[in-house]
Every structure is written in C-alpha cells, then in structure tokens.
Amino acid sequence: MERIVTCHLIFRAGYECIHSSVIRIPKQANERMARGHMIYYSACQPAILLLLSGLQLVHMQSAPRFTRTPTDQIGVQGGVASFVCQATGDPQPKVSWSKKGKKVTNQRFEVIEFEDGSGSVLRVQPLRTPRDEGIYECVAANEIGEISASTRLGVLREDQLPAGFPSIDMGPQLKVVERSRTATMLCAASGTPDPEITWFKDFLPIDTNTHGRIKQLRSGALQIDQSEETDQGKYECVATNSEGTRYSTPANLYVRELRDVRRIPPRFSVPPMDYEIMPGGSVNITCQAVGVPMPYVKWMLGAEDLTPEDDMPIGRNVLELTNVRQSANYTCVAMSTLGVIETVAQITVKALPNPPGTPIVMERSATSITLMWDSGNPHPVSYYIIQYRPASSTDPFKEIDAIATTRYSVGGLSPYSHYHFRVVAVNSIGGGPPSQTVEARTAEQAPSSPPRRVRGRMLSGSTAMVQWEEPEEANGQVVGYRVYYTSDSLLPVSQWEKEMVRGANFLNIRDLTPNKTYFIRVLAFTAVGDGPLSSDLHIIAKTGVPSQPTELKAEVKSETSILLSWMPPAHSGTDAITGYELIYRLGDQPEQKITFDPSSSYLLKNLKPFSTYVFQLAARSKHGLGAFTSEITIQTPQTQSIPPPQEVTCISPSSTTLLLSWAPPITDEIDVVTGYSIRYLAVEREKDSVQRISDIPSNCFRYRIEGLKKGVLYSVTVAAHTDSGQGPESLPILVRTEEDVPSAPPQGVDVVVLNATSARVSWRSPVAERQHGKIRGYQVTYARRTAGERSASPKMRELLLTDSQPQNDSEHELIVTDLWPNTEYSVAVAAFTSKGDGPRCKPIIIRTKPSLPGLPLLTVMSSDDGGAMLTWQPPPVGLSPVIGYRLSYGLADPASDSFMVQELDSVARSYTVPSLRVGVQYVFRLAARTIWGYGSSAQVTFTTSNTAETTTDAMVTVPVTIADVNMSAQEDVPLLVNVTARNINSSSAILRWSRPKNYNGMTGYRVWFAVSYSNGTDVAMESDVSETTVVLHGLRANSEYVARVCVLSKNGPGPYSLPISIKTQPEEEVFAVNFRVKAAMKSSVLLTWESRTTNSKAQSLVILYGDGERVEVDGRLGQKLVNNLKPQSVYTFQLTSKADPTGGMQHRADAMTAPNLLSKKPQLLEKSSSQSIATLQLPSVQTQANVRGFYIVVVPLKRQRGGNFQNAWSDPDEMNIDELLREINGTGRSVRLRRQVEAKPYISAHFQNLPGEFKLGDGHVYGAFLNRALVNGQEYVCFVLAILELGQNTVYSTSPFSDAVLFSDVEPQPIVDEEEGLLWVVGPVLAVIFIISIVILILLFKSKPDRKRAELEGRKCSFPSSSKAMSSQHPSDPVELRRINFPTAGNKLIKRRLSLTLMKGVLGIRMSSHPPVSVSELPAHIERMKANENLRFSQEYEVRH
C-alpha cells in the first residue's frame, strides 16, 4: 500500500510543511525576528514549492521488532530496579508496561521515554518485598501488529542478601566542570563474581558505543570528553552480577561556561568561637573562610594536623570534639595559592571544685554535732554537702545539701553515738571529691527506755531479790539504778520506798511484810539524768511463791483464738512452777479463770469475734499462787462477712416516705442473719447527716422509711447482721421522694415600675428546705386597686423554668407589660412544682406612671411669604387623649438659646411661622400634651433656602427637597387597609399590606412604629420602602409595639393607616436538649445531649461537676466522656453555654459511678502460636450483687511507623464505649461488619457468671457473640466489662487492661497506616496540579522566546581557573560552593527586570547565575548580601574596578 509521506519542516521564519504538501504560513511569522535578518513569505514561496515536489517517497509499513529487551533482575528492598525495552517498526511502535495483565500504575513506578521514541525504561523505586516481586511485561504495538517480552523481578531484604551480592564501594559525587573540559564520574563496586558496571543518565541507560565523547574506563568510571551543556544531568552507576543488581546514589554533573575571575586572598568570614564546656562534653567548632580561589581549611592542635591532607574541605571546616577532658587551643588554617592565614579557638573545660578542708567539731550535744571547715577552693563554690553515717555502719552516707556556709550543725543524731562526717563542695559543674573523714561522738543524755527484763523472787519470807538488764537505749554511760517498791499501789511513786544500786544489776530488798503483795519498779540514770520507770513487777512476800510472769503479750491467731506468750518468773529448784492461772473477761462481763500446766505460751480458743478481751496471768508453785501481771487488752477481728442483701429496690410511695425491699444474702449457712440495718443520706444537702435504722428483724424484707424531706434525692443502703456483727452494705441506690407543693413563698420579692404600662417583678427562690421538689416555675398575680380595694379580677403571668436552671437561692424576674397608666396595682408571687402552687408572698402595692403621648409626625415646608408652614399628624392613639400641642422654634446655632414657644389647640394640624430670615437654618420642635404632661418632641431642621432636613430624637435625618413639593397640585392620597403582622418572634416581625387600587401617583410607602404607651423615653422609628412587605428588626423581646403605614406620593406622605399592635415573644435561648448520662463507669461518665445550634461554627459548652471542676466541649459533638472520677460516688453534671458569662441556661444530670468490682486484670496463662489462641485467667468478682452480665472486650492495638504497637488508653474507663453498648443492645450490626475491616474494639463473649478461665480467639460463640480468631502480627489487649443495675440506674464496671497478646507473623508484612492510605488520594491530585503547572510554565516560556534567548546568550558564568595547588576533584566555583555549603532562600519573582546591558554598563555589576533583581529592591538586596561580613555579596556579585 502506498501513501504520501508527511513532511514536517520547521523554518526559521516560522513556516511549516504539513501533510499532503500543504504549506501553512502562520500569520505571525511575517512579524518574527530571526538572528539579525528577516525572512518573508513572498521571498521564499517559490523555493519552498520546488523543495516539496521532491519529498514524496513511497515505502512499505513493517511490524514491531525488539531492538532491546528487558533482563531479569534481583534488587534489594528500598533500592532501585530499571527495565529497558526498545523496539522499531513502521510506524514507530508504542511501548507500554504491565504486570499480571494490568497496566503498571503506582507512584513508585515511573516510565521514562527515550527521546527518539524508540522505547522506554520502567523504573521502580523504592523496592518493596513481596509486593513488587513478579513478572513484568513490555508490549510494543503499532498498526501492523503487537509483540511482547517478559522479565522477572526479585526483591530481597538486607538480611536475605547472599554473600556475593554487589556492593557500591564508591559512587559518583557532585561534579562541576567547565565546558569543553573533561569530566570523570567515579564508580567502584565489589561482589562475587565481579560485578559489571553500567551507567544511567537521567534514569536512561548510557550507550558508550554510540557516543564518541563518552566512554567507560576499566575501573568502571565514566569519562566525558569535551563537556557540553547537554552532558549536564543526574548520573548513577549500576553494579550487576549473577547474585543481583545494586544502584548507586545519583549525583549531579554541572557544566559551566568559562569565565575570568579576579583573585582574592583568603580571609575568615566566620572565625571560630571560644567555648566553655563540661568535663566529658562535646562541642563542634566551625571555621569558615572565603577567597578567590576558595581556600582549603584545616584544623591543628599544636603541631598536629587534625584534618587529613587528602580530605581537606574547601571554604568551611567543622571540628567535632567529643569527651573533652582538658582545656586546649585549636588552630584553624585557611590556605590558597594567594596565602595562608590562621586563627585560634580556645576550648576551656570547666573543673570540679577541690575537696574542702578537714571538718572540725566545734560543738556537740546529745542529738547534734556542729562542724566547721575551710573552703579549700580559690573559685566560688555554689554550696556544700555534708555526708555522715554511724561509725559502726556500712550503709551509704546520708547527705545534707544546699549548705551555703562553712559552719553547720547536724541534728537528728542518736545520743552517745559515734559518727563519721565529711564535706563535699559543689559548683556549677557538679560535686567535687569529699574531704577527709572525721569521727565525732554525741554527748550523753538520760536513758530513753527503762531497764529490760525486770524480774524477782522471794529469797525468804521477808527478803526478795530483784534482777534486771541494761536499758535498750541508755544514751550514755549508766551510772546506776534506783529501785522503787511499795505495798500500796495507789501511792505516787515519789512516796514509794527506794534503793540505789551502783555497779550491779540486782538488789535484795529486805524487811518485807510477809504475805503482802509488793509493786516494784526500776529506772536507770546517767550523769545527765534519770530514765523512765519500768512497768510494775508484782511479788507476794511469801517463801516459795513465784513472782509474776514478765513480758506478757497477746497475738491474734483467728477470729476466735488468741495466743498468749510470756517469760516465766525466776525460781529456785525447790520452788518450781507447777502451773499458771489465767484470768480474762469480755468487756464488762464477769471474769473467767483457766489453769494449765507450766509453759511459756497458751492458745485461748472459742472466743467471740470482733470483741475486746482483758487478760491477767499468774504463776503457781507448790507454795501457792503468785502475783498477777498487769492487765493487757486485745480485740479479736471481725469474722468473715456474709454477702450483702440481694435484689435491693426502693420506691417513693409519698413525698415523705421511701419503701425499701430486698432479698436475704446468699450464704451456705442457715439462720446466720440476725437482723438488718438501713443507712440513708440526702445527697444534695451537705448539712444533713447520715441516718441509720437498726434492729430490723431477720424475717423482714420490706421497710418503710418515714419522716423524709419532700422532693429530695436520697442514697439508701441495707446491710445484714450476724452474731459476729454487721456485714457489708449493698450498693447505694439513688431515689428521690415524691414532690409536694412548696410550703413557703418566694423570698425578696420586689416590684419596680418601668413606665406607664409595665413593671419589673424580681424575686429569689423559696428556702431550699421548703421547696419540696423541683420548682417548675413561678406565678405572678396582679390586680388593679381603687380606694384601697381590688377593683378588677386578678391577672396571672407564669415564668417557666428549664431543667438546667438552678433551684436554690437563684434570682428571677418577669416584666409585666399590660398595666394601666397612673393606676394602683397589688402584685404577689408564688412558686409551683408538678404538684401545684405554693403560698403567695405578701402583696406589694405599686402605682404605674402617667401615660405621656407619643411622637407627632411633623413636616416643614416653605410658605409663600418667606416663612415656614408646619403640618403634623397626631401621635398614636393612647389611653389619654391629646389636649394640646407646644411648638418651639429658633436658630439652629448651638450657641443660640432664644426659642419662641407657642401653645396650640388639640384640633390644630398646621401652623405658619411668618417672616423668617433667608438662608438661615431653623430648628422646629413639636410635642403633644395630655392630662399627664408633654410627650417627646418631633424635631425638624429647616433651611429657608431650598432644602429641609427632618430628624427625630434618634438623630435620623431625612432630606426633603422643597422644589419637589407642589403645593398647588395637591391630590388625595388613599388610605392603606389590610395591614397585618406575621412571623413575630423575640426581635423582629413582618408587616404586610394591600397595594392601593386605581392610584398611579404613588412613589413608595412609609412605615412608622414605636413602643406602645411610651412614657417619652422611647424613640419612634420610620422607614421608607417600595414593596408591600417590610421586616421590622431590632425589636425588644416581650414588648408591645404599634405600627402604621402610609402611601408616599410626589406631593408628600398620605394619611397613616389604622394602628396595628405587635407583641414580641419572650427571648429564650435553647442551646441543647436531652442532656443525660448515657453510661457511668467506675472512673468516667459518658454524657450525651442534642445540640440546637443551626450554624456550622463551633459551639463552646462547659460541663461543671464535682468540686468546681469543669471541662470545655464543642456542643456539635453531642457527647463527652468525663474521666478521673472516684468509684461509687455521686456526681452532678451541669451543661451550660460558655458564651453566657453569667452561666445562663443550664442542664443538669445526676450520676453515680460504678463500684470497683474487678480490681485485677486478666492474666495470660498460656499462648498457642499454632492455633493463635490465648488462655486467660479472668479476675475474681468481689460481689455478684445486681450484676446483669459480664462481657469480654478485645481491643486490637494500632501499629506505629516503627513497627511497635501502642495502646491509646491507659484504662478502659477512658474509652468511649458507645459502640460497644450498641453492640450489646443489638443495634450495632453495621458496626460489627465495619470492625472486621477496621481495628476497633469488639465483644468476644458474654457470660452471666464470670468463669475462671477463658480461651481468647477459639472461634466459638458465647452468648450471641463470636470469639473471633486472633490475627497473626496483630497485638491485642482485653478487659472485662460488668453491667450492674443500681435501682433505676445502669452502671458499667471494668477491669484493668490485660497484658498484650501477640502472635508473630510468618512473613513480615509491610506497614500500611492511615497516612500511606491517604497518599492514594492526595497523590493523583498533586500529580494533576504538577502537570498543570508544567504546562503553564511551557506556555509562558513559549510566549517570550526571544527574551529568553537573549538572556541565555548574555549570561556568562564566571568560573575559577585551575591551579596546581588545588585538586581537580573539588569544585572551586564560588556560586556552586555557595549552593553546596551555604544554602539560601530562593529569590522572589519580580515584575520588572533589568537587562544585562544595563546591569553591566550602568551599575558595573556582573550577575553570577542569579535571576534579575528589580530596581526598587536592589539597595535592600545588596544590604542583605553584605550581611555576614560580605560573604554572600562576594559570592553573588563581582564589581569591576
């Protein structure tokens, strides 16, 4: 098949040859300028036609054929993979990529086309395993056919790489080269076998065989000869062997124009700073130098080079010092071919203080030691630390810090004890070494404990031997002992007989009276004083009778048993102890005696629990019973309590009674309950105390509590009693007694007369104790009075209260507006509840103000005799008729006080003021008069020339042009009818009327409205409209208005319509309704409400609760979880608007938090990884009272970016269990399906009685809930949720979270979080925006090619010449170095630009790869460049000299 070959030639002048040899000549081509000459259409047309006639060729089409197919690759995770595919054919085939039959579309997959259209490169970056692994297919297709080639990609993790996998040892680095110079991009790689190195430029492969200037060296480096601007781009080398493929990091190659640069010796632009650091600290010292050429910078420490010669940076060098222990001077050296300079940075290491001098003991007492020491430091010390400990102890030293002086008294020591002391000095760095240790001993003190183990026995009938041991706390050297004894224990000790003993621990007391009982006490004394006396030792003066046992102690073993222990009394062999006699009693009951064989302990059983016992013990020998010990007292513990009563309910049958019922506690024993007791408390009244009712028989399960307060919320509990005492109380039940009518009137009733027809009534709520329930509202009763007697039936107005308004001692007010002027009224107020009205207060007598007339409608016009003609209409009809008018007028000058006053009749409607001065402004005022006085004045400002301005008292001015008024052509203006008011609310109303028929001279309407029965303080308002509807704004709430409308014609206003009365509604703001407690946990409460806001703005609400605590919330949310509450506590929550500073309307809800039934968390017993099942030990329940059920809640944790899991809640009470409750109630099926996709908490089981163990994730159904299998790689925690019924309230008690349960993945999965999912939404949007931006830039560039070309030609980049002293591997271009080392913010786009010629010729400044700067911004730009010691200015501009 033959066809005409399409010729596409673009000529310099803009001619274009298109298909079918048709030449299209753009219209603009004739006007374009080439380089120095113009080509016109008329001159070239013959030559073009001859050329086109020889370009018609015929050839055959061909099918696609691959010239290069992709090869299999194995990459590393996070790396790069590139597949190259090229094909030929006629027409040129189009190459596309696919995976598994679907086109490759991903933000990590990029297809780069070859410039000649021969194919493309598929680049995948970064690689991910296993999602990127698979078969990729390259498809080449044209009109003739289609071919494909496939390749495989494998991706390995770093820990899976084989030993010989390629590694890039040295990759290409950023390079700047001058045009026509040689550029070398280095690359070195290793691997087994040796990898092959290839190169990519701008992600396309480089074919070194077709480029004569570009060749690859044996080392793998890429060498580019005769560099051109087209060589500029991003280069990367690729190492490939049989184990895999690895890509280097891309590096840019910049090609710059040759240029001449002036040479500048080096100087320090940023000299290094001196630093003071802590011992062992780190510091970075920066040294920066500039010059042309740019100098090398190195660091030296003395003669030692700290910077290697082969890696010496240019322009800037940062010395990093770590773990610095000594001070030193570091030298920064900057050198170039033009010179060497250096500067020194001093690093000072702060030193710790020296040890203070040896402490000296200045003073000592029994409990303190005063020390003094020398500082020992030449530099200031912040403070001192004294360290001390007992000399015999090996424990760590105790410390006293923040001591500011070198003298200090250490207190709290033990008397007569040896201590070690040392001192440490502290400065801003820390504490130094301690001083030498000094030993000191505290002074003596009287003993603080009596002698130990005082015992005695009879040696004969009149001699007793007493023995003892040294006191436990002697507090010094015991000098001796004093022994006191007497046979009369009632005498004071000072009157007892006494003996002094020195150097011995015993005493023989002689001359005792036989058969008498003696009381003996012993004390020790030191040189300072006496110690305390020992307890009494009882001895009977009888031979062979033992003394009392010592150290008698009692220890509780159980609820019914006590173990007694003692030290046996001393005795001789012939006076052996034959037994003991124990006396004990319960409280005030008679004593009981027990005798038993010799021993040092005795277990007393069968005692009564929760009882107090008194014990005495005596020893017995064959000679008789010895003395008894002193009494000791001990109490047996309470027996194991029985459960509380079950099924406790409470109702209020009347306003003063509660009926409580219950079931007996569940126990295994029979007839253990001996009775019941009830406890109740008024929770809303802080002054009320807890009341108890006891001695309720055990067979009674209902009880009526009487004598309660009306309408009060009570908390009621019941407890069972046994012989052992009272058991635990049941959970509190909140119940409110029935309401009743209030028994007291409102307080502080006050009535204030506002005007002739209204009065404000204010009052406070009745006394709280006599409200008898919730006050629903108040009733205001008022009646007219004549001659002291009521002359009309009373009227009533009610003020209804909302649920949120406070009840106690709150203030209220109501405005009564339908009163008669100058009339006496009696006003009374009463409160009412849902049960009825309470008593009214004492009537208050008031008299309303007289009714003053309203504002007349005044108009002023010029008269024929040069005066002013005034016309008016009477004010709105009031309760009192108008009996006259008063007119006053004068000059409008504020300094003038001379006004003429004229009294007029009530029937007058006009008045003419003659002979006014021309061109002078006058003020006219007209007021109506009734029997009660004058009303407000209508004011008109009138100029006798050609304009008049009409104003009211509210300074509203209406210009009236006199030239427009034709007095001779007066015509009848119709009266409006059918004026109605609709859509009346608290601040606005809509007026409507009928358009007059058969009248064409109408120009509009005038609406007049004012407050009814005005007393002269209210201002009438006027408004001119063109439609038959008007909206009156700015009305006062709960007020009565009168309105009239007239027709406006070209001759002026017509008569007003009959007045219409408008009563606005009371203002009431309802920001939310249905405020309630949805769920109460043990430490949190979920509150819900319905918002009444109609806009989309945030609604700031405040929730008040507890002891003045508050939390702010957006009302649009409709719910709030309040945390950090106390378990089993009553809370009152109030919801109010934050916008009202006085609190405004409030909603109230009461709640009781749940008890802590589940104090322990579920424990993980075992975990089966093969079945993904975890066995949990569930916590024990403290009580089963009123528990409706138990639920096992599983919480999947969210994986973070680092791979770790995190629990968003520290306690289950912090969770919003709204969805869980819907699932429990069977209303959350859609939620259950959604949770299978989202990681949300779910319920896995429901139990009526909580088992001991539970297998989590076994797949079984427990109480209509599926125990879902646990997912590998997902971490879980769980908790137990218990639902309790407390009377009419439902609460929720939770256990703590269990330990985390995790089953590891077999294959690690990629982390997909919300942010990555968001990329699939944001990514395409950003791509579209990027493409649109590129298109706009291309169009802008195409629109001004000549200017762009001129700028490209005129721009010359200065580049430093080479130097033997400088390495060719380091760039020396100041601009490039600035961009590498000192990145700056991008320059702003400017609207006006300077040409390069102007910049060169006028300013003498040459630009260095810098965009033009506007003239207006040039001074400020230069100042910015000169900052930092001209560093940036020297790099941006070079000024010719």
TrEMBL record:
Which cellular compartments is it found in? Membrane
Q: Which CDD domains match?
A: FN3, IgI_2_RPTP_IIa_LAR_like, IgI_3_RPTP_IIa_LAR_like
What are the record keywords, sorted?
Disulfide bond, Glycoprotein, Hydrolase, Immunoglobulin domain, Membrane, Protein phosphatase, Receptor, Repeat, Signal, Transmembrane, Transmembrane helix
Q: Name one GO molecular function term.
A: protein tyrosine phosphatase activity
> Which PROSITE patterns does this one have?
FN3, IG_LIKE
Q: Which GO terms describe its biological process?
A: synapse organization
Q: Which residues form the Fibronectin type-III domain?
A: 355-445, 450-546, 548-639, 644-740, 745-851, 852-950, 975-1067
The EC number(s) attached to this protein equal 3.1.3.48
**Which stretches are transmembrane?**
38-58, 1318-1341
Q: Which GO terms describe its cellular component?
A: plasma membrane
Location of the region described as Disordered in the Swiss-Prot/TrEMBL record: 434-456, 1354-1374
User: What kind of membrane protein is this, topologically?
Assistant: Single-pass type I membrane protein
Catalytic reactions on record: O-phospho-L-tyrosyl-[protein] + H2O = L-tyrosyl-[protein] + phosphate
Domain (Ig-like): residue spans on this chain: 64-154, 166-254, 266-348
Q: What is its main location?
A: membrane
Enzyme superclass (EC):
hydrolase
Compositionally biased spans, kind Polar residues: 1359-1371
UniProt lists the family membership as follows: Belongs to the protein-tyrosine phosphatase family. Receptor class 2A subfamily.
Full protein name: protein-tyrosine-phosphatase
